[in-house]
Amino acid sequence: MGINKIDYYVGALLSHLVKKQIAPAIIDTSDNSKQLIFDTDNGKYNLFVKYSSKPVRSNDKTDKWVINFTTAEYNVVNALPKEGYKNFVVLICSKETLNNTEVAVLSLEKALKIMGNDNINKVKRIDVKAQKGSKYLKVFGTTSQLNENVLQHK
Question: What global pTM score does this model have?
Answer without folding.
Answer: 0.82
